[in-house]
Amino acid sequence: MPEFSALIHRSAATSALGLFALAVTGCSAVVSTTNTTADAVHTVSHGVSVSSRSSTNVSSGKPEEATSARTRAFVENQHLALQREAAAGGGEHIDALARLMADAGPQNTQSAELGAWMQANYAELFSPGTSTDQLVSRIERHAG
Fold first, then answer.
1. pLDDT tens digits, residue range 84-102?
2. What is the pLDDT of residues 32-55, one digit of tens each?
3. What is the spatial distance between Cα 142 and Cα 118, in angstroms, rounded to a whole number?
4. Any residues with CB less than 8 A from the CB of 95 and at least 6 apart, and which?
5. What pLDDT, on a 0 to 100 scale, did the predictor assign at position 30?
6. Which of 31, 62, 111, 131 could bond to 95 as cystine, CB 3.0-4.6 Å?
């Protein structure tokens, strides 16, 4: 009988250790998920805030200036996605950029044409040291 009792004690100790490990791991997963969600919300909030400030700052100006400011804010916030899509020749961010630029007036920028042009001029558009203003000016010259 003493062997059976020792087996029960070892089994209970192993179960307790397993439950402790599960509790610690589960807690870590919850903290990790919460931190990831908080980071994502912060990133989205920052992008909306910057775009809103840019639009608000120029709302009293001409419509072309407001659209240009929104375009610049978009390019600044989505620079890496635009760079990646320009290398591929198109994508949803380039589509959005084309729509923003079409809202400026007489420009009739088609997203497929813009994507192909950005791909062909990738080295010039995304060379090291190119500012957002320079990038937007080059794109607007092409579209204009």
1. 999 999 999 999 999 988 8
2. 555 554 454 454 445 545 544 544
3. 10
4. 111
5. 45
6. 111
Q: Which residues of 14-40 are buried (b: 16+ CB within 10 A; e: fewer)?
A: eeeeeeeeeeeeeeeeeeeeeeeeeee
Are residues 65 and 50 in contact, defined by beta-carbon separation less than 8 angstroms? no
Count of H helices and E strands in the chain? 7, 0
pTM: 0.55
Do 69 and 57 touch, CB atoms closer than 8 A?
yes
Do 140 and 97 form a contact (C-beta atoms < 8 A)?
A: no
Q: Which region holds residue 90: left if phi is over 0, alpha if psi is between -120 and 50, else beta? A: left
Cα-flanking dihedrals φ and ψ of residue 65, to 5°?
-65, -40
61 secondary structure, DSSP code = S
- Asked if 112 and 86 touch (Cβ cutoff 8 Å), the reply is no
Residues in the chain, overall count: 144
Alpha carbon of 36 to those of 30, 33, 42, 134: distances in Å? 10, 5, 10, 34
Return the structure tokens found at 129: 């040291």
